[in-house]
């Protein structure tokens, strides 16, 4: 019976928290300050219970053993926050639609590649919003070499993003005209992206703090509301790597509470509070 008992808070020691911290840093570059100790308890205790482990200690022993590789993924997923919404921080989509795509579309029609990256896409609202903006400004994009790469470390959210189905409440943030143009309702009351727009995004699992098997350069990168989980050094390394993946004149969008500390050293020019352009 003991194995089925939930782990109690008294069994969650500071040493357990330090182990989780180390795992988060090593596996995902995620920094967990001590202020997150209670949050970590509530997130991880669910995994401890689900695995039927009697204590945090036993759970962490399992996760770090060779048999626990699959569960290690679940632990990382439990430590990440996936909050997102359609057209979140809308000025980025307005900029993409009115500045970036109108400039890029004639060149892509003439034969060059066009790429946009949603670099921590969560359940997909960000890349699907990008796709709607692209289809609005460049309706024939799917007939040319134009694609949106959408990546996240969490395979579960990437699967949901790929499905592209959302409930009625989630799609409220999509203007009615776009919803009817790009989505179809299903019998269970959900809405699903349908038609040519489905050919624009490609979804992949990718850890931003590991190597990137990505060819070529991007005209725009959305990296929003993810670096808040990283420490300063990890953040700066990421900004530099993202800047290196932008083509000259390409744009980087960051979350409204974020800023690129190393902008000029990274070859970026700030053109608006959370919008940066790669120097030529
Ligand atoms: C709060 S969501 C942000 C989603 C979207 N970019 C937005 O602004 O609405 C943060 C996402 O970052 C992902 N994430 C956390 N650490 C990551 C890492 N090391 N590599 C890639 N994605 C990561 C999480 O899985 C989560 O889906």
TrEMBL record:
Q: Which UniProt keywords apply?
A: Methyltransferase, S-adenosyl-L-methionine, Transferase
Task: Spell out the InterPro entries in the cross-references.
Answer: Bact_Chemotaxis_MeTrfase (IPR050903), Chemotaxis_MeTrfase_CheR (IPR026024), CheR_C (IPR022642), CheR_MeTrfase (IPR000780), CheR_N (IPR022641), CheR_N_sf (IPR036804), SAM-dependent_MTases_sf (IPR029063)
Per the record, the GO terms for biological process are: methylation
Catalytically driven reaction(s):
L-glutamyl-[protein] + S-adenosyl-L-methionine = [protein]-L-glutamate 5-O-methyl ester + S-adenosyl-L-homocysteine
Q: Which domain of life is it from?
A: Bacteria
Top-level EC class: transferase
Checking SMART domains in the record gives:
MeTrc
Stated role:
Methylation of the membrane-bound methyl-accepting chemotaxis proteins (MCP) to form gamma-glutamyl methyl ester residues in MCP.
Give the protein's recorded name: Chemotaxis protein methyltransferase
């Amino acid at each position: 019976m003991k194995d089925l008992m939930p782990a109690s808070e008294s069994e969650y020691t500071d040493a357990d928290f330090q182990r989780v911290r180390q795992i988060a840093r090593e596996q995902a570059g995620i920094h967990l300050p001590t202020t997150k100790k209670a949050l970590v308890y509530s997130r991880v205790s669910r995994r401890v219970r689900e695995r039927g482990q009697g204590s945090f200690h036993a759970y962490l022993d399992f996760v770090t053993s060779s048999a626990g590789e699959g569960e290690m993924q679940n632990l990382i997923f439990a430590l990440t926050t996936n909050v997102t919404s359609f057209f979140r921080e809308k000025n980025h989509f307005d900029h993409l639609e009115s500045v970036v795509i109108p400039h890029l579309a004639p060149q892509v029609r003439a034969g060059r590649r066009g790429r946009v990256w949603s670099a921590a896409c969560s359940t997909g609202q960000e890349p699907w919003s990008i796709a709607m903006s692209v289809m609005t400004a460049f309706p024939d994009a799917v007939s040319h070499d134009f694609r949106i790469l959408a990546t996240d470390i969490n395979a579960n959210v990437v699967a949901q993003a790929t499905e592209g189905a959302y409930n009625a409440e989630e799609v409220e943030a999509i203007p009615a005209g776009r919803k009817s143009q790009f989505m179809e309702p299903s019998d269970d009351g959900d809405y699903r992206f349908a038609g040519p727009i489905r050919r624009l995004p490609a979804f992949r699992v990718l850890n931003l703090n590991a190597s990137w098997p990505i060819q070529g350069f991007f005209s725009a990168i959305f990296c929003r509301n993810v670096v808040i989980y990283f420490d300063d050094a990890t953040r700066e390394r990421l900004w530099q790597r993202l800047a290196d993946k932008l083509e000259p004149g390409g744009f980087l969008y960051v979350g409204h509470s974020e800023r690129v500390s190393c902008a000029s050293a990274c070859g970026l020019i700030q053109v608006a509070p959370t919008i940066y352009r790669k120097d030529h």
